[in-house]
Amino acid sequence: MTSRDWYLWTVLAGMLPEHALAEVAEEKSALFPASPLGAGALTETALGLLAIVALIFALSWFFRRFGRQALLGKGMVN
């Protein structure tokens, strides 16, 4: 084996892990979205937060308006 052949095999052997890593990176990029902070994700998070805040305000209004009487019924049976 000449020094030129040895150099060629060394270069090719060095490229094998790089090629394998490139394949793994392609597989991972196909599985995960490009950016987790995209407009769709931020919009979905904001709408979810808005829904939770609206639910908290609705429940606080309900309990202020009706108090515990709406839940207990004061034990009256007709």
Short précis:
The chain has 3 helices and no strands.
Query: Would you tell me the structural class of the helices and strands?
Result: mainly alpha
Overall body shape: rod-shaped
Helix fraction bin: over 70%
Strand runs, count: 0
Biggest sheet record: none
Radius of gyration: 32 Å
Write the element-wise H/E pattern from the N-terminal end onward: HHH
- Poorly predicted runs are none
N-to-C terminal Cα separation, in Å? Answer: 104 Å
Structural write-up:
Helices cover 78% and strands 0% of the residues. It is built from three helices and no strands. It has helices at residues 3-31, 39-66, 69-72. It has two domains: 1-32; 35-78. With 78 residues, it is mainly α. The model has no long low-confidence stretch (mean pLDDT 74).
